[in-house]
Amino acid sequence: MSDLDQLPFTYPSDATANGAKGKPRCRRHDWYANACRRCGVMENPVTVRRGRNNASRGKRIQRKRIEGLGGTNLAGNNPNLDGIGELFRYESKSGGSFSERYWRWLRGIPKGATQVGVLIVTDTPGPGHRARSIVVVDYDDWRDLHGELGPDAA
Fold it and tell me: Which of 22, 55, 56, 72 lies 20 to 30 angstroms, CA to CA, from 3?
């Protein structure tokens, strides 16, 4: 027994005597009567409402962008496919995946009255690996040039 065991108080800790941290947090709660069956945490109505509002806003943005290009928004949870059209298949993202750096670079491209700025981003994987590239174009410019409805549809 050490001198620490003789102290009259204890520190709160999640660790057990053998160093284990206990059960991990739920990755997805299983709600029953406002409490999680797995971990016991209570449901917070404020965070539930915020999550529902955020999800519906994201779906609304996705639907508006796909339909704005002339595509058809697909209902349900389709992995890697949010919309479909004659020429293109669409995956739409909003929120945290938006790159301010790419946006700043795209806005900084000098262009004439009839020109469209195109940002090409390429990785540098090293010897023996093929470089990957993506092209970034402003949504309005893309819609005007390549939207399913064509440039005369507006």
Answer: 22
CA angle 84, 85, 87 (to 5 degrees): 120
Task: Output the DSSP codes for 75-90.
Answer: PS--TT-SEE-SS-EE
The stretch 135-141 carries a mean pLDDT of: 93
The H or E element spanning position 134 is strand 133-137
Our separate counts of H helices and E strands in the chain read 3, 7
Residue 148: Cβ within 10 Å count: 20
Non-local CB neighbours of 74 within 8 Å, separated by 6+ positions = 81, 82, 83, 84
For the record, the structure tokens of 107 come out as 């806005």
SS3 42: strand
> Residue 148's closest CA among 66, 76, 35, 28?
66
For residues 130-134, average pLDDT: 92
User: Average pLDDT, stretch 14-30?
Assistant: 73
